[in-house]
């Protein structure tokens, strides 16, 4: 893993160099046109601003891609839980990897974004954040069977904190997140946090860099989580842990119904993903149905086979729609 | 989903509700801005006929009167949009800003024959030029407005020739060539802007052909032509 990291870092450095080259090229060009007219001067300033925007966007996108890749790997690793016996060990390793992501990659993001308008570069890192949310919520599900609070994650993403308070950026919509915590005390906890967070600008005497992530990314990441849970639950059938399948089924169903209550939403991606979520939910429900109906009649191997065929039929039907 | 009992309901949609309210307020402000922009363009469109061409200063004055209301709308937008969330809602008024830039730049050119810089334009509509401000003027919107304005200028030059004004086209051509040169200084990364800047080439070409036609028929005074050549060599 260390190797991978190194390579990733090297790549990034190389690209920075490339950016610099293009910079100098442009600069040469402007030297050629030594016209000191106000028009040219104005345009040179526009150009510098645009270049700055584009380059920052590009750098953010790169970081986001690193996060995506690492998150995908973590998810893959977490899937081993359903077949491997050493659950604790896998979870522990996943935890350290997730922490590493927060500690380094997200810190890079935060530093890059510092002092810029909040929603300006949101599009550059949304995919990475969504994948990360998927990974971390999946981890929490496997560990405790609940969803971690978004505020908890965000509070970890405040860097260079020297003052006592640890609140991060305002996140107005993050209350929706709580809905997904099934436990009530957790809910009230994040409620309090929310109140604390509001109207607190992270500008203190000491420099403090808080990463801003729109809450959308969290919700979209949650929707992706359902796909992982579906795979997890089906795998659990094959390894004979049927109660796990039922648990996941309930969990996805709860998540789906809570997301359905978001009626104020005008986000196309949200509905697209919600549809996908429903498909995975149906698959898990069908699997549960199979287990209940025929579980006592046939052997385990056959059951797995049956669920497999059932689901592939389902897939074909979907593709014809 | 009401926000009356956020602690009890599992879903608290205040954030979403707040966003929706902001969006509807912004829409309202933009709705009021639209007719002003349309009226402005009506005044300016009249430069493309013979009568209008003779009274450009009056037309510009008329068009400028609409700016008062537009400035008001922008100041309202400034208060509606929360701190730090400019880029979240920017798409809502993007088109209007491009249009405003187009019209204001056209007015300034007709009045003074120069390009209104982004700073001046920002001042005209009452927003900030500094990108770090709460409600800045976006580069791309300004540049798109500029390119729209240039294609209008080509049309203006053609009209001028039609009504036997052979001096203005030369001015216009000088201006357009300078602008297109400056636009080429930009790194054209975004597809939209790149396409627009590329289309500017055809505008320049049209103007050059126009000048060629004029000079062929001896309609250009040597003074103008000389100036034109000098500018091109730069």
From TrEMBL, chain A:
SUPFAM superfamilies: Translin (SSF74784). It is found in: Cytoplasm; Nucleus. Pfam families: Translin (PF01997). InterPro entries: Translin_C, Translin_fam, Translin_N, Translin_sf. Residues 17-30, 164-196 have a biased composition (Basic and acidic residues). GO terms for molecular function: metal ion binding; sequence-specific DNA binding. Its main location: cytoplasm. GO terms for cellular component: cytoplasm; nucleus. Keywords: Cytoplasm, Magnesium, Metal-binding, Nucleus. Residues 1-30, 164-200 are annotated as: Disordered. Mg(2+) binds at residues 134, 228. Belongs to the translin family. This is Translin-associated protein X. It comes from Laodelphax striatellus (Small brown planthopper).
Automatic annotation (TrEMBL), chain B:
The keyword Coiled coil applies. Its main location: cytoplasm. Residues 183-210 form a coiled coil. It comes from the Eukaryota. It is found in: Cytoplasm; Nucleus. It holds the Pfam family Translin. Keywords: Coiled coil, Cytoplasm, DNA-binding, Nucleus, RNA-binding. One of its GO terms (molecular function) is sequence-specific DNA binding. One of its GO terms (biological process) is RNA metabolic process. DNA-binding protein that specifically recognizes consensus sequences at the breakpoint junctions in chromosomal translocations, mostly involving immunoglobulin (Ig)/T-cell receptor gene segments. Seems to recognize single-stranded DNA ends generated by staggered breaks occurring at recombination hot spots. Exhibits both single-stranded and double-stranded endoribonuclease activity. May act as an activator of RNA-induced silencing complex (RISC) by facilitating endonucleolytic cleavage of the siRNA passenger strand. Belongs to the translin family. This is Translin.
